[in-house]
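User: Hi! I have a protein structure encoded as tokens and I'd like to know what sequence might fold into it. I'm fairly new to this, so please keep things simple.
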């Protein structure tokens, strides 16, 4: 993270950041129904050369088995992984590109860290 000049934020600390995503589920003829607000635990940010604007944001979520199986979380996670990411896969104007990594926190630490390192390397690689 330091080598790549990335910033890491613990997103639950309101004094530091307040990033959240309003999530919806498509209900056929009814349209979109709100399923809640999604606030991930961590954000890994890459800024542009001026350091003024975010270029890419990796959303990192960890949950224990019990929380990961909750219906509300499953619906919000599905929205982020599908619609939200599809709308933000490339940086456009003032909006950064987003990627998402979910890690269930009962995984062995070495596996957890390996997935995180791989996603950081892959997502933040220069094209």
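Assistant: Happy to help. Inverse folding works backwards from shape to sequence: for each of the 127 positions I chose a residue that suits the local structure. Here it is:
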């Amino acid at each position: 993270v330091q080598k790549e000049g990335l910033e890491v934020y613990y997103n639950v600390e309101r004094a530091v950041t307040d990033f959240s995503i309003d999530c919806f589920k498509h209900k056929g003829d009814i349209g979109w129904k709100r399923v809640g607000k999604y606030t991930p635990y961590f954000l890994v940010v890459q800024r542009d050369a001026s350091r003024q604007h975010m270029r890419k944001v990796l959303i990192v979520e960890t949950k224990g088995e019990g929380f990961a199986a909750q219906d509300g979380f499953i619906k919000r996670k599905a929205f982020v992984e599908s619609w939200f990411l599809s709308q933000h896969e490339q940086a456009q104007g003032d909006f950064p590109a987003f990627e998402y990594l979910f890690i269930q926190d009962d995984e062995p630490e070495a596996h957890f860290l390996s997935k995180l390192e791989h996603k950081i390397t892959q997502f933040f690689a220069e094209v």
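A useful reference point when you look it over: The longest helix spans residues 71-87. Feel free to ask if any position seems puzzling.
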